[in-house]
Design brief:
The protein has six helices and 21 strands. It is mainly beta and 350 residues long.
């Protein structure tokens, strides 16, 4: 049986770094050759956006099992763990976007800007389902900031540039292309990752993925690697998914998501090729139960918009505010009907 390499994003820094040959020492790798081949020059892009890219140093407290015989009952010990990640300034007032797993358990966060200035930071909010977080620093003057672009406009094969703090080395950039879109890597119900071959390494977590216009179209989050370092397959949260989460965290420090209270799976209606989300189970006293949804119902539309997959239904409901009434179009016993459902609040939120 073959085992897939694990998804990894270790924040631990290596004990030593391998020496690499200078790029100029490799045959054919020079600026004029790049120009002749029509490859892009990323120098102006890097110069314009790097002032808004930050390094994040994190101290967190973790519990550890006591190293004592089992018959000696002692409390769990605690030790401090140092970590490093990346982020980018989204507002000149000092609001910074990063990954939730970078700062989620932090007891102390320090942000270093591109000019070497260090600032203590506070965590404004964390959204675990998208692995996004905001931190805030206070600087004596407005800071350089970058804006979010539209990830839906990115096409497979287009150039992108990643920036961040790989292996704790500070402001670094790497370049590549969009390798794929809409990747589901099993991280959560909102998986919709941009895949890129721009090298992303431990410490790049939370850093921006730029388009050639200098807009952030992704937040670098995970890598697919057997070694823990870049193997040319990295994943970024798309900016279109991140935008409402960032706005919600800025407004109130938390994200409220709509909830139906069903388990769903993908289904295709036999003989007709009609796709949708089949209701596999309905939770008691949930919005779905109160509205009369049943196991076996095939949901094909939400407020008139086609629902092709279970993931599309989950995402479509999640972006709706709790309390809103929606119209579900479904097939039951071969007959189409519509049911009104009042969206609830996702358990554990609010």
């Amino acid at each position: 049986m073959t085992t897939k390499p694990p998804l990894t994003e270790s924040l631990a820094l290596p004990r030593r770094l391998a020496l690499l040959l200078p790029l100029a020492a490799l045959p054919g790798c020079n600026g004029s050759a790049q120009a002749q081949r029509g490859l892009p020059d990323f120098a102006d892009l890097a110069e314009s956006v790097l002032p808004a890219v930050v390094s994040i140093q994190v101290t967190s407290r973790e519990e550890s099992e006591p190293r004592r015989p089992a018959d000696r009952r002692r409390g769990r010990g605690e030790h401090l763990v140092q970590g490093a990640g990346s982020g980018f300034i989204i507002e000149p007032s000092g609001i910074i976007v990063t990954n939730g797993h970078v700062v989620g358990n932090a007891t102390r966060v320090v942000v270093t800007t591109q000019d070497g200035a260090e600032y203590p930071a506070r965590v404004m909010g964390v959204d675990e389902l998208t692995d996004l977080a905001l931190v805030k620093i206070t600087a004596p003057a407005p800071l350089a900031a970058v804006s979010l672009g539209h990830s839906a406009q990115m096409r497979v094969g287009q150039w992108v540039m990643a920036a961040g703090n790989p292996f704790g080395l500070g402001g670094s950039v790497t370049a590549g292309i969009v390798s794929a879109r809409g990747r589901d890597i099993g991280a959560g119900p909102f998986d919709d990752f941009i895949q890129t071959d721009a090298p992303i390494n431990p410490g790049n977590s939370g850093g921006p993925l730029f388009n050639m216009a200098g807009e952030v179209i992704g937040i670098n989050t995970a890598i697919y690697s057997p070694s823990g370092a870049s193997a040319g397959i990295g994943f970024a949260v798309p900016s279109d998914l991140a935008r409402p989460v960032i706005e919600a965290l800025i407004r109130g420090g938390r994200v409220e998501r709509g909830w139906l209270g069903v388990s769903v799976g993908d289904a295709e209606e036999q003989g007709r090729g009609r796709r949708g989300a089949v209701i596999m189970g309905v939770e008691r006293n949930s919005p779905a139960a109160r509205a009369g949804l049943r196991q076996g119902d095939l949901v094909t539309a939400l407020n008139g918009e086609a629902v092709a997959t279970s993931r599309a239904l989950v995402r479509g409901v999640a972006v709706l505010p709790p309390g809103e009434t929606v119209r579900l179009t479904l097939l039951r016993g071969g007959r189409q009907q519509e049911i009104a459902v009042q969206i609830g609040r996702r358990p554990g939120e609010g």
